Amino acid sequence: MYYTASASNNNDFITLLKKYDVIHSDKVEKAMRSVDRGHYVYPGTNPYEDCPQPLFSGQTISAPHMHAMCLEILENNLTPGAKVLDVGSGSGYLTAAMGMMVGETGKVIGIDVIPDLISFANANVKKDHPELLEKNIVEIKLGDGWKGCPEQAPFDAIHVGAAASSLPTPLLDQLKVGGTLVIPVGTSSQFLKKYVKGENGTFSEEVITGVRYVPLVPQS
Ligand code: SAH
Predict the structure, then answer these.
(1) Which of 88, 117, 157, 195 allows an S-S link to 77, with CB 3.0 to 4.6 Å?
(2) Rounded to the nearest whole angstrom, what is the distance from the C-alpha of residue 90 to the centroid of ligand 1?
(3) What is the 3-state secondary structure (H, E, C) of the chain?
(4) Share of the chain above pLDDT 90, in %
């Protein structure tokens, strides 16, 4: 589902996304207003329309309505001081938005498998919110989403920005009790799923909606 929302600057674009009922939460609205999508797209593509845009190496920055949806799903875990993992950080947009939500006492680790995209994402965040990197709130580095980031676990929230053919269990293991994982799962047919970790190794699972993401590349 794509909306026809298109604007000439980030602020007007976020106002449109609110008007079209894509953004419901004030906290998410604030984060998406503060992170300018114009800093995270490839030159020549329009950042202020509600569709995914090509980056390079066949990857895309996700559509704004997916960014909004995932931030809202994770919102209760993206509180000041929270520790977060963003798998498939791509453009760095969502990593930065989550960094704004967790603040100076929080930490968001973005991991990706494509070194050029890691450089791109770091440069994008540096243009938009250099303090996120300077204050070590955001760190974007090489890592495999099938393994997660055990050395920095446990996390309050984990976002996955590429579709896994099956659920990577290390990501569930790396959640705190009460922590939330949002992940697209599937191949030709994919669903965005939400997992919340309970006590004693239990999890709740919720299917949010059908989606179409690039694949989480298989473990080497
Ligand atoms: N949230 C990002 C999505 C980028 S597209 C954004 O909106 O910009 C998905 C990303 O997942 C790509 O950057 C791709 O390189 C990365 N990716 C694919 N397989 C991966 C894996 N196994 N581990 C980590 N990142 C992966």
Answers:
(1) 157
(2) 5
(3) CCCCCECCCHHHHHHHHHHCCCCCCHHHHHHHHHCCHHHCCCCCCCCCECCCEECCCCCEECCHHHHHHHHHHHHHHCCCCCEEEEECCCCCHHHHHHHHHHCCCCEEEEEECCHHHHHHHHHHHHHHCHHHHHCCCEEEEECCCCCCCHHHCCEEEEEECCEECCCCHHHHHCEEEEEEEEEEEECCCEEEEEEEECHHHCEEEEEEEEECCCECCCCC
(4) 92
